Amino acid sequence: MSHIVLLLAVLYGLACASLALISFVLLCGTAWDHAVEQRRKGSRQRCEATTETLKETLNNLSAGIQAAQHGPPAGAVPGARPPALSLARRTQALRLHRRGSSPEQIAEALDIPLGEVDLLVKVHRIVISNI
């Protein structure tokens, strides 16, 4: 009978050890699941924050593009002097003046400021009168 009691005691010990091992594994699994859930929440929050930052940046870039499209042309610098009249444009302006066009018409036709056309015509008259 002592062999049977010993065998039953060993089996009971193995059963208790198995239960302890199963409990430990379940506890570790639960802790691991909790840690994974915390990391997932942290990752999700970082992704949402990054998404919001990217949306804000995209909106700023979009506003900048719209402002650039509706603003002054890229080549025009406020306060900068326009380029001087080329020889071909001066010749064309004087030709239109000799044909009887008004300074306003010349300025509009050649897309140059009226003041430059007036100055060009006055200088031309002075040069012609000195010849």
Strand content: under 5%
Oligomer: single chain
Helix content: over 70%
**Sheet having the most strands:** none
Task: Report the radius of gyration as a whole number of Å.
Answer: 45 Å
| Cα-to-Cα separation, first versus last residue | 148 Å
Keywords:
131 residues, mainly alpha, rod-shaped
Summarize it.
This protein is mainly α.
What would you say this structure looks like, in words?
- The protein is mainly alpha-helical and 131 residues long.
- The protein has two domains: 1-66; 87-130.
- Helix content is 81%, strand content 0%.
- It has helices at residues 2-70, 87-98, 103-110, 114-130.
- Helix 2 packs antiparallel against helix 3 (103-110), helix 2 (87-98) crosses helix 4 and helix 3 (103-110) crosses helix 4.
- The longest helix is centred in the N-terminal third of the chain and has 69 residues, at 2-70.
- The termini are far apart.
- The relative contact order is 0.04.
- The model has no long low-confidence stretch (mean pLDDT 86).
Q: Could you give the topology of this structure?
A:
Layout: H1 2-70, H2 87-98, H3 103-110, H4 114-130
Helix pairs in contact: 2-3, 2-4, 3-4
